[in-house]
Amino acid sequence: MIVSAILVAGCTTAPPTGSAPSTPSPEASTPPLSASASPAAAPPLSGEYAAWQAGRSLPVADPIYPERGTDALDVLHYDLALRWSPSKRVLSGTATLHIRPTRDAASVRLDFKPYEIDSLMVDGAPATGEVTKEKLTVATPVAKDAPFTLVVAYHGHPMTTPMPSKRADSHPLGLTVDAAGGLWTMQEPFGAFTWYPVNDQPSDKALYDISVTVPKGWSGIAGGTPAGRDGDTFRYRSTDPVASYLTTLAVGKFEKTTATGPHGLPLTYWYMPRDRRFLPGLKKSAKYLEWLSKKFGPYPFPTAGIVVVDGPSAMESQQMVTLGYAIPAMGGDFFELNTLHEFAHHWFGDTVTPNTWRDLWLNEGWALYAQWLYQHERDKTSDAELDRTAREKDAARRREFGPPGDPDPAEFGASNVYIGGAAMLRELHNTLGDEKFFALARAWVQEHRDTQQDRASFTAFVNARTGQDFTPLIDAWLDSATTPPRRG
C-alpha cells in the first residue's frame, strides 16, 4: 500500500480511502515571485530593537488572501500576556509588539478580531485607535525603518472566523472555545487575529514570548520552548521566528508527559485524561523525528511536542503540533502517517516558510512526499508502485481542482497542492537519484533556515545545486492542466 490517508488543511485530515498516496492543502494564482524574502536583506536593527534581529522579515502582500496582513509592517517580536476565564468565557490580553515599518504611513493597521480595547500605547505614550472589519487601526504616524513599540490591552469573548474551504473536515479558524470552557486553535491560512493583534500572513515571521494564566488545575499551552511556570502562569519562548499561522494556544485540564527524542531533543505530550489511551501512539514521535532527521537533516528547533485537542484536523504549529482528537481516534496508519506528516512540516513549512499562499505546495508537497517515502520504506513497496499511484492520484486531483500552482482561494486545503507538489518531487527524485536528491533536500532546509521562500527561489536553488535546468520540469508540474509525461 502506498498511502492510506492524508491530510491537513492546516494540514487536515480525511478518512482513509484506499491504497494510494493521499493529500490535502492549497495556494493560488499568478506567476511566481521573482525573489525570496530573505531577512538578511533587511536593514540592521540598533538599540533596544537589536534584540529582535532574528525576527526581521521582508513582508509582501499576499495575492491569495490580500485582505489579511500587510506589507507595510514587519513585526519583529510579539510578547503576549494572556489570561483565560473559563467561567466567563473571557480572554484578557496585553500584547506588546515591536514593529519595523517598511514605509512611511499616517497610521498602523493590524489584523484583529473585535475585542474591547482597554488601552493603546505607542512608545510609552497613550494612542488612539479602533477595531473595525477585523482590523485594528492605530492613529499614529510611523516612518520607514524606524522601529516602534505598540502595546494593546484588550478583553472579550473569542470568536472564530470562517475557513475558505469546502473540505468535509474543515473547521472555523482561530480560537475555539470548547464545551468544557477550554481553548484551542488551528489557523491556516489565517486566524491568529482571533486572539491577538497580528500581521496575519506567512511572509512576516517574528519572535514570540507567550504567557498564559489559567485557573488552578488547568494548563496553558503554546508553541515555542517552555520557559517556566509561575503558579498558574505558563510561559513559552520562540527564539526561531514563527509565521502567525504556526502559532498555537490551548487551555484545558490537560495531563502532561515528557520524553526524549533524537539527540536528546526534549518532547512534551499534552492530552486530556480521556485521551490517555493515545499516549503510546504519541510516544512514537521520537521514531518519526529520528527518521525525518536522517533524511532531511537535524530537527530545526530546540524542543518538540504534541497537544491533542477537540478538532477534526491537525496543524504543524511550530514546536508543538496541534493534533485534532479525530486523528488518534482513527488509530493505525491514519494516526501514524498524519503525525509524521505534521512533524515533516517542521522542516518544510515551519523553518522554511512559503512567502505567500500561492506557494503552499512548498509545504504540502514536501510533507506529503516525506509521508509517502516513510510508508514506502516501512511497507517495502516497489518504486514502480509508488510512481504509479502518485501519477494516478495527481491526474485525478488535477481534473478536480486544477494545477497546484494555481489553487482556488475558496478551496484552501484542496488535495491538488499536496499531491501535485509531492509528485513533482517524486520525478525530481527519480531523475537525481537518492544521494543527490536527499543532499538537495537537506541543503534546502539548512541553507534557508528561518526564512520565507517561493517558487522562483526554489527553482533557482535546484538549478544551481544540481547544475541542471529543472525549470521546465518544475513549471510543468505546477502549471499543467494534466499530469506531465514521464521525463526521459
From the structure above, extract its key features.
alpha+beta; 10 helices; disordered N terminus; 8-stranded mixed beta sheet; 5-stranded mixed beta sheet; 2 domains; Immunoglobulin-like; Neutral Protease, domain 2; 488 residues
Rounded to an integer, what's the Rg over CA atoms?
Answer: 21 Å
| Contiguous runs where pLDDT drops below 50 for at least 5 residues | 1-39
End-to-end Cα distance, whole Å, is 27 Å
Q: What is the count of DSSP helices, taking H or I runs of 4+ residues?
A: 10
Descriptive report:
With 488 residues, the protein is of the alpha+beta class. The protein has two domains: 154 residues, Neutral Protease, domain 2, CATH 1.10.390; 306 residues, Sandwich (Immunoglobulin-like). It has ten helices and 24 strands. The strands form six sheets. An eight-stranded mixed beta sheet has the order 7-6-10-4-3-13-16-15, with no helix packed on it. Strands 18-19-20-22-21 form a five-stranded mixed beta sheet. Strands 11-12-17-14 form a four-stranded antiparallel beta sheet, with no helix packed on it. A hairpin with a 5-residue loop joins strand 21 and strand 22. The N terminus is likely disordered. Its cofactor is Zn(2+). Keywords: Aminopeptidase, Hydrolase, Metal-binding, Metalloprotease, Protease, Zinc.
